[in-house]
Structure formats: structure tokens, C-alpha cells
Amino acid sequence: MYSLIIKMAWKNSFLRLPRTLLLITMIAVSMSMMIGLQGLYDGMANNMLDKNKRSASGDVSIFAKDYRVQKDIKYRIKNAHAIREELQNIDGVKAVVLRVQVDGLVATARKSSFATICGIDLKSEDKFGRFSKFLKSGEMKFDKRGAVIGLELAKTLKVKVGSKVIFSAQDISGEINSIALRIRGVVQTTNILLDSNAIFVDISRVHKFLGTSSNDVTQIAIMSDNKNLAELLKLKYSSLDVKNFFELQPMMQMMQEIMFIFNSVTFIIVMGVVFIGILGVMYVSILDRIREFGIVLSIGMHYKYIRLQIFLEALFVSFFGYISGAVLGGILLIYLRDYGLDLSAFSDALEMWGYEAVIYGTIKISYFTSTFIAIISASLLSVLIPLRKIKKLNPIEVIKAEK
Amino acid sequence: MFSLALKNILFYKGRSITTFILTFISTVFLVLYVSMTDGSHDSMLKNSLKIYGGAIEIYHKDYRDIGGNEYLIQDVKSIESKLSKIDGIKLFSSRYETYGLLSFKDNSTASMVVGINPTKEIELSQLKSALQSGEYLKESSQNCIYLGSGVASKLKVKLGDEVSFIGGASDNSFSADIFVACGIFKTGLFEFDSSATFISRVYFDELMLSKNKASYITIKVEDLDEVDEVNNEIIKVLDSENLESLTWKTLMKTMVEAMEVDSIFGYISLSLFLIVIFFVIMIYGFINVSSRIKEFGVLRCIGLSKRAVFSLLLYEIFILSSLAIILATPIAGYICYYYSINPIVIEGIAQMYQDYGLVSDELPFSFDIFTIFWNICLIFILNLLSVVYPFFYINSFKPIEASRHV
User: Fold this and answer.
1) What pLDDT, on the 0 to 100 scale, is given for residue A403?
2) Which among A40, A47, A46, A51 is positioned nearest to A263, based on CA atoms?
3) pLDDT digits 0-9 by tens, B310-327
4) Which of A206, A291, A369, B400 sits between 20 and 30 A of A360, alpha carbons compared?
5) Is A268 on the interface with B (CB under 8 A)?
6) Are A80 and A202 found together in one domain?
7) At what angle are helices B227-238 and B76-83 packed, to 10 degrees?
């Protein structure tokens, strides 16, 4: 009996082929567009989040108390090496970097701007966040007074690789000190603050410039997969300021939440409209065959078999729609992941906002599973109203009624 | 044909109601979305212009690209006398901008120090209305410095404190002075408040040897919509190869581009909704048509042309779409108008997005008849297009075959 019902459901699903194809097309197009958009927006947010972690804060950062508010070299961590040793022995800690940062004025022969000199160790930064990957032009070298500059700052100062700049700031004794630097490379980290303010210099040179010891740093950044690390370090280093990524970058958390809300609202609206589409087709498909259902009921077929047949019809159509949408959406996502959406025409604006000119998408299995559940649910729900109509059917009246 | 279409609409209620509701929702949604996007973009641009930017700015060529003292405007007075004869210019003023180090006790910070005409700036910018404490500058303010709140906080300066300045004068010589903190301002533009300080030009020109020189001349126009025409007039009278006059569209190119990118993403998202709705309207139209194949067959058999059948379908969708749009437009229009006057306020949004140049918690809508008109047209066209496939489907049947269709 069940095999007969499956066969009937299959044949009836494609009885009105143009109508069924139209419904499958609607599901496929809306689903592929929706998951394409989700992938693109998630890709934008994840890319920004990943690069912010790699270039600046890591998963957890430690500062001296008051440094983040005062931004003054006076508030620095003075036993950095010992802390690094301790951190490296904690489970889940993958990399630790030490940084020294100080705000000042950078000038060329013609232009000046505010800047932050960031003393870093290239080898540690590469291990920490593949820092060299941020290089846009030139080379990642700090030798012979070399420095690497943020893309937006380079634009502001109109400097290129090979240009000379003078950075001036207050040293540890309060004196104004200057250092001449040669630009060796330009980086784009997509972290707005770094791209528009930072000049990266070897940490030992910055120590010499500021008069600090090699044990003094303004930030210790940690990359870790231990989710409780921040809480653990807050207890361990209560005299320091320990912050996790989202505490340091509330914008990122806000952005993720906004993306989640936006994607959820889009999902609900699109699935709602898709539901209306399936409902229309299923309703008419049942009304077309109301006489047929009356006949099978009158010759003794139980209602539960008709219900099963209709559920199966809805499932077959929506499943084909889902498969088509998943294939189309998958192709779209792979394209966005590999080639991205090229918005080079707006590169200045995107860079200003911390985005790259080519925006790459991301692929998550959840796009396909959540859509599968939504489409199957929508198709099953859509037949409830038509089924009610069949249940209330008086078979004799229906058979007698003119088609 | 029109009355037949009307009868069909009343007869096939399910399809009519669905099409009406979906058209209504998509019209309201599109109009409100575009209005909100345009309104918030306009507001961001206007706020930025209002605070310190100029509708038009005149520079020495290469000042913006190369910079440096050799690219300062050298004869400001003669340019100003030419500008005063141009219609459409409301006000103008020259500014002398330089970068230097400011220090107070143990604290130093880099700052953009600008020599301004305090009286003219009251109307040209929001420097005076942004006053947080102390007093705004006067022409005779001497060595008074008007500090951005961020600068004051970095230096830990209070009103009356003496701030030392080191920088380069307009002849490339070394310049240094001691200023007195007279006022602190906060515009809401985070970067601007953290970097800008102002001095009265009368005093600053003496210090920087910049009399009759300027980094640029900023101009306020009477009507922002006529900025291009005014700019063309300026270019004509400047009559100099060494000067360039640029409107805000060029000066704020990055911001304008950023708005365009935001709009592009918005329209991509919106297109998803519109396409899904288009499909559903088409499906309902198709279902309706496929249940009327016999009817169309009979109509064709009694002499109705293919064109007339198409007209019938078109009339049906036209009536349904028009009714939905007629109801949706005033509702959406009123909402746009209301929120253009009483913007939505989201507390804290400016604080959250300060790095992106958002200076206000208000999100005003835009009320523009032309924009609403093209939004409506788009929905209308999509609805009309939705009958194309059903029409071809009907025509795939021969009239006799269709009249016998079960």
C-alpha cells in the first residue's frame, strides 16, 4: 500500500509540470540568493574579526592598568618576559606577542599626521597572526631604520615604499624625541585604527627611541583556544588590565549580532514568502483533484493514506527545490569564497571602513541545514489547510459536483 | 476588456487578495527602505559638511596631493575680492592649517592647529555651537587656543592652563609659542575632536608668517543643490592655473563612495525580497491562468486575439497592482515624511559607530517624491512582468485544445 502511495505522490507531484517547475525555480532562486547573501555578509564580518585578532588584540590582551584610557607610556607592563613565560605554559595558549605603542606625530618633508609607532617583533607576529600576510606593497623588513606603514596613513602622508618619514613623540623621561624611518612596506590589516595610524618598527628600536627596557611593553597579546583564558588571567594578574577580544572590540560583537539579526530576519521573511508560494500551489493542486479524492474516499481508502500522499507530494516538490537551491547556492558560495565580490571601484571607501576591495564569502554547513529544515517545514505546513478541506469532504457531494 | 478583467479579479478572490497583499507589502517595504537609506546617508554627509567641511573649497594645485608650504595659496585677498562678486556664495573664509606638537606638563600630543576667522566660522562651521566649556574664540583672542575635547583630555588640560606649541611656520622656519586654553569643544566627530585645535588668525598669522596666505578657502553656498553652478563660476573667475576649486562631492569622495557601497549591499538584500515576491505573484498568476485554460480557449474560439488575451491579463494585474500601490503609497509616503521631520533616535548609535564618522543618534528618513515615484514604478514593472510567463503558457495551447481542456 505504502509503495503505491509513494508512486502516486511522485506522479502527482509532476502532473502539472510547468507549475511544479515554477515552484522549484522559486525555491531554488530564493534559497540560493539567501545563502549567497548570508555567506557574503558572514564572510565580511568573519574576515574583519579574524584580521583584527591577528593584527591587534588576539583572543586576550593584557595592558597595564590605565594604559588604555591614558594611552601613556608611563602606564606600561614592566615584567613582560616573565609574564610571557608564564603565559606560554598555560594550556591552550598558542602564541604570545609583546608590543610597545606610543602616539606621536609623523612628518614627511611636506605632510604631517598623527600616528602611533608600534614596536613589534616580526617573527613572533608571524607566528601569532601571520602578520606578513597583511603586506600590500614593498617588503616586510625592519633593517636599516626600516618601517612598515598602515595603508590609510600612507595615503594621508602620500608616502610610498622608499619614502623617509620622521616620527616624534615623548620618550619615557617626557622629552620630545624624533626618529627617522625609511618606509619598507605598506600593510592593510583592515583594522581601521592600525591602517590609519600605525607605523610598525622593530621593538628593540622603539625601546631605544623611548628609553624603555626590553622588559617594558604596553601590550601582551595572546592567541589561544582556551575559552576561559581571559577569566583565568583576570584572577592571576589582578594588578593588570586583562581584556578578551570582544571587550576590546565591542564594535565587532555588535557587528556579529547585527549580522545574526539581519540574516535571521531575512531568513524568516524569505521563508514566509516561500511558504505562501508553496501553499498556493499545493492548495490549487488539491482543489484540482478534489473529485479524485472524493472517489478514493468513497471506495474505502482511509483518510490517513490521502494525508500521507499529500505530505509526500509536498515533500517531493520542496526537496527538489531544496536540492536545486543548494546546488545553485553552493556554486554561488564557492565562487564568492574563491573569487569574492570585486568592489575595487569603491576601494577607497571600503578601505576607510576597514574592508578589502574584494569581499570574500564564507561557507557554513548551517546555511544548508537551516534552510533544509525551513523549506521542509514550510512545505509540510502549507498542506495543512488543503488537508482540512479534504477531511471535511463529503465524498458523495464531491463526486456529484460538476468539475 | 477592462470590465471583464474587473469581474475576473472579483471572481478569483484568492489570487486577487494574495497579489494585492504582496504588492502592498513590497511597495511599503521598498519605499521605506530606500527612504531610510537615503535619509541616513544625507544626514551623515550634511553633518560632516555642517561641522567643519565646506560646500566648495579652493586650494593651490598639488596642496592636497603633495602638500607643503610651497603649495599654500599666496594672495588670499585678491581671491576673496573675486569671490565676493559671485552670486550664490553665502560666505567664505580662509583657513591656515598646520600640524604641530602640543605639550602640557608631562603630556604631549600631535595636533592639527588651524588659524581661523572666528566670526565667519560661526556661520561656516559648528565650532562655536560645539563649545563644551570656556569660551569661543574672538578676532582679538590673541594666544587663546580652542581645543578639541579629545586633545584636551590627552593633554589633561583645563581652562586657563598654558599649552606649549612646536611646529613649522609658513616659510619653513621653526615656530614655537605658548597658548592659553580658552575653550574646549566637542562636535561628536571622534577623530576631529581628538586632533583639532583652533587659534584666531590675526594672532596665528603673526606666529606662522602666514598673512595673506592660506591652506585653503572654504565657501558656503546659498543653495547646496546649485553647488556645481557656483563652482563653475568660481573656476571662471579664478582664472589661474595654480588654483583648483572643488565641491564637496570631490572633497568627500570617500564618504560618497562609502554611501554607495552601503546602498549597493542594501539593494542586493532588497532584491532578494523583491525576487521572491515577484515569483510568488507570478506563481499565483500562473495558477490562476492554468485554472482558466478552458475559459481562454473559448474566448480565443469566439475570436479574441492573442493580443486581447494579453491585454486581459495585463488589465487584471494592472488593476490589482494599482489598487495595492494606491493604498501603499500614501501610507509609506506619510511614514517617510513623518520620520524625515521626526527622525528615529537610537540612543548610543553614534558612540558605537564614532570611527565611521556617525555623529548623531538620529536616523532621519528622506522624503523625496521622485524617489518614491521610481520605487512605485519598479514594483509596478515587476508586477506587469509577472504575467509574461502565464501568457506564454496560455498561448502554448491551440484554441480548440484549450477549450476542451479539463
Assistant:
1) 47
2) A40
3) 888 889 999 999 999 999
4) A369
5) no
6) yes
7) 130
